[in-house]
Amino acid sequence: MRDSYGEEREWRLQGVSLLASILLLVSVLLSCALWTPFRSYPTAELSPFLVSVGEYFFGVFGVSLDGFFVILALFLLAAGAVLRWWPGGALGLLSAIFLVLLDQSRMQEWFLFSVAVLVLLSLRRRLSPEQIFAALQVVIIGVYFWAGIHKLNATFIYRSFPWMVDTVVERFPDSLGFLELTGVAVPFFEAGIAVLLLCRPPLRILGVIALTTMHLGILLLIGPFGHNYNSVVWPWNMAMIGVSWLLFCSREPTLLWKWSCWRSAPFLGAVCLYLLLPSLFLVRWIDSAWGLALYSGAKPTASILYRPESPLASEFHPFLREEPQRSDTLRELPLLDWSMTELNVPSYPAVRVYRAIFRKLCTRDESLRLRLTVPRSFFVKDHPSEVLSCDETVGDKSRSNTVS
Question: Which 8-state DSSP code applies to residue 272?
C-alpha cells in the first residue's frame, strides 16, 4: 500500500537535519574554548595517554588535536545528515566520542542530543523515513519526560526554580505566590508534554504548543532580558521548538505505536538511550547528562578552596563572582563559575570529573582543598558538603572531613 505520508516525512526530516546542523555549529562556536586544550580550566581526559597523543599531534602538525576533531565532527555529522550519507554519520560519531575521551566536560546535554539526532538522520538511505521519524520522536519524548521527572526534588522547587524566576519577582513582586506554586507544577507540566506528544494529533498539537510556550519562557528567564545566563543553550531551546513542530505537527499518528518501527535497531537504540537509560539517574548510576536531568538541581557541585597567597590565586581571581571581604580569609571558587566564565558551559556535574580537575590543580599547589556537595535525597533542599585535601584525592583514598 502506498505510504501517503512518505513525501511529507522526507521534507520534514530534511528540515530537522538543517536545524540540528545549525544548532551544533552555533553551540560549538558559543563554547569555542571548550574545544581546545589551551585554556586555564583543566581538561578531564579519560587517560593520560591521550594527553601525550595530543601533544605529539600538535608538535608534528602544529594543530590542536581537539580542534582538528571538532572540525571533522561538525563537517561529517552535518554532511551525513543533510546528504543522507551514513559513513559521514558513523565517522562523525567516532570523532565526537574521541572529543569526549579528550575531555569529559564536553558531554554537555545539547552536544549529546545534536550528535544523536544527526547520526539518526544520516541513516535515511539504509532505513525507511518512517523508522527514522519514529526514532527522532522517541528522542524528543524522552527529553521532555525525564527532564520533568528529575525536577521532582526539593532542590529544584526551593532553589533552582526560584533563582530562575527571581528577575520576574523583582519586577512584579505580587507574582511571588503564583510563581511558588508554579515551581511545584513545572515537573508535571514538562513530563505531561511528553505524554501529550504520544497522543493522536489534536492532543499532540496541544503538547507542541505547550512546549513552545515553555521554551519561550525559559529564553525569557535566562536570556538577555532575564539572567543573561548560559547562552550556549539558547540555540537549543529555539531548535527544540522547530524540531518538535516538524516532527509532531502533522495528521499522521505517532509512529511509536507502529510495530514495524520496533524492528529497527536505531529505533530500539533511541528507546534504550532516551526512554530507559535516564531512569538510572534516579539511583545515581549514571551522570545527569545521560539522565536528561536538565536544570533539575539534583547534581553534584564543587568548589576550589585556596589561600590568598596561593600561586594560583592570580589565575583564579578573574573567575570570582565577588571580591573577598577580608584579604586573609580562605577563598572559594565554584567550578561552575569558572567554567561558565571561561568556557561558556556549566562544569560537568560528576564527582570523578571534579576530582580529576582537582588532582591536576594539586600538582601546582598542594595546599588546595576541594569542597564537594552531592545530593543524597530528593526531599531536602540543602545537602551536606565534604572537603578533600590533595592527598585524599590521590589513588583510592576517600577520607574526608564533613563540614556544615
Answer: I
Residues 214 and 154 in one domain: yes
Claim to verify: residue 263 and residue 178 sit in the same structural domain: yes
Same domain, 204 and 267: yes
Q: Are residues 245 and 370 in the same domain?
A: no
Sign of the four-CA dihedral 297, 301, 307, 308: negative
- 113-127, 186-200, 260-274, 330-344: which range is least confident on average? 260-274
HSE, CB side, 13 Å, CA atoms: give it for residue 106.
27
Asked if residue 263 and residue 239 are part of one domain, the reply reads yes
Q: What total of structural domains would you count in the chain?
A: 2
User: What is d(CA 64, CA 39) in angstroms, rounded to the nearest whole number?
Assistant: 12
Instruction: Give the pLDDT confidence of 320-373 residue by residue, as tens digits.
Output: 877 665 555 788 999 999 999 999 999 999 999 999 999 999 999 999 999 999
Angle at 292 between CA 287 and CA 293, to 5 degrees: 80
Can you give the length of the chain in residues?
A: 404
What does the pLDDT look like over 243-288, one tens digit per residue?
999 999 987 777 677 777 788 888 999 999 999 999 999 999 999 9
The residue written with cell numbers 533539575 in the block is: 296
Please check whether residues 143 and 278 belong to one and the same domain.
Answer: yes
